Amino acid sequence: MHNINGSWIRGRLFGLLIVLSLISWPALLASIFPEISYQKLPSPLDLFPALVSWVLLSTIRCPYSRLLGYAWVIWYFVGVLNTLSSSIVLGSYYGNLRLQEATEIYFWGCAFYFAGMLLFEKTAGKRKKSVYGVSVSSLGIHPIFRAVLLAFPIAWLASMYWTLGYIPILRGVNIVDDMYEIGYGPLYPYGPFLIVSILFAAYRCMSAGTHKRRISYGVIALLFIIISMADGKRAFAMVAFGGVCGISFKLFGRKTWWPILPIFASAMLALYVGVLLLRGDESGVIRFDAYEKMMLVGVEFRDFVYTVNYAKPGEIQNYSWAVSSLASVTNNLAMKVLGLDKTALVNLDSAHAWATIWGSNFGIRTGILSELWFSYGGMAMPLLVLYGFLSGILIRGLRAVRSGRDLIFFSSLFGLLVLNITSQSTFTFGILPTLLYLYVVVRGGSDLLHQRNLRRNRILEFYSGLRDVGLDGRSERLQR
């Protein structure tokens, strides 16, 4: 009873701290950015939906869903710091951005997404003894496929180097303007396999029985993450980070919250910023005052704020979330049979539409919430409820898996959910078929080879039994 009361008191105190933080957030921003007019900052009333979001999130019991919710909430605060820093450092069209409407849209979107996950938990989510799911009993990947997963990142990098004659991220020059136009080699389209390779190494690291094996696979996982960013892009690494969190929840339970998650997050933040600096910033000059540091992370939210200030839902030209998302997940051959141009339809996505707004040669990402809002306006909110419910279905599958193989692939999907608040839907839907094909091959091939080994062992046991019977019979005759 004493422990229950203690937990209740701590929960109420934490909730009170959140409320006070939200109320004081505008004043805190005004003190950090004295150059910014107070009229451009969100008011406590604008943050009311943030309070609604937090109440819903605090009601969710599933740790996987809560992690997604925390990521969405934290992203707002990181993005606001980036937005206001950009208004000071870059000026121009970033200098007149107002945060009020963007704040309300974002947190109402969070509230509806959290409501969807909570709805699933209350209606369809089965109560299990552990909120982290059942234990994993076996790996379920044949040694041949284990070797392929470990070899692929090296082959992918070698293919890139063989094609280009260099590693883009190590050139020491600004590669931002060129990195989406370069042909990286024959293995480059299979980049989503890198996610699975990283998660395989991470799973082997976290499930290893010896300290030596744990270190060895940990180093391999880190190497694979670095390789995945060799082209200057960080999407695969960020998906893998979310997937590693899913694996950690499954294997270590509540220990993931502390100290594992802070260590993972710090390492990924260092790699994220490191790649940003290595590939070169927009101005070609790297400075390190406080405002510029705040601009290193959160640019996607800043671009969402910009769009809210200068555009309305339905006004963005050559943009269709539904068409581009459906086209990205559909097989190219099937679309050719139907007489459809997959590339043209995929290019109706947010990345290309927002690039046109900025006059940029490469895609601009603003996240799933922004995509749905500028496609459907207020109707985006019930869609976010549906999205939250579907997230719950995927998480239920992740909690239920019993093999390392299924855990790795479900965790890759969970990683896509984590990244969706900053990414574009055509990236998410576009790599789903590739991950599905790989899963079918690994699962089908592993099961087939396992069955073959079982049949071979049975045959060997049968002949061994016959040999033993023959020897025994001959021995009995000799005794007579």
Give your account of this protein's structure.
With 480 residues, the protein is an all-alpha fold. It contains 19 helices and no strands. It has a domain at 2-127 and 290-318 and 342-389. It has helices at residues 2-32, 48-59, 63-89, 100-123, 143-164, 192-207, 211-228, 235-252, 260-279, 290-294, 299-310, 321-329, 332-337, 342-346, 350-358, 368-376, 380-400, 404-419, 425-479. The longest helix is centred in the last third of the chain and has 55 residues, at 425-479.
Tags for this model:
480 residues, mainly alpha, 19 helices, 0% strand, globular, disordered C terminus, transmembrane, O-antigen ligase domain-containing protein, membrane, transmembrane helix
Shape: globular
Q: How far apart lie the N and C ends?
A: 80 Å
**Radius of gyration of CA atoms, rounded to a whole number:** 26 Å
Give the overall pLDDT as a whole number: 89
Percent in strands: under 5%
Helical amount among residues, as a percent range?
Answer: 55-70%
What kind of sheet is the major sheet? none
Structural class computed from helices and strand pairing: mainly alpha
Protein name: O-antigen ligase domain-containing protein
Organism: Caenimonas terrae
Keywords: Membrane, Transmembrane, Transmembrane helix
Transmembrane segments: 12-33, 45-64, 71-93, 105-124, 144-167, 187-203, 215-230, 236-253, 260-278, 373-395, 407-423
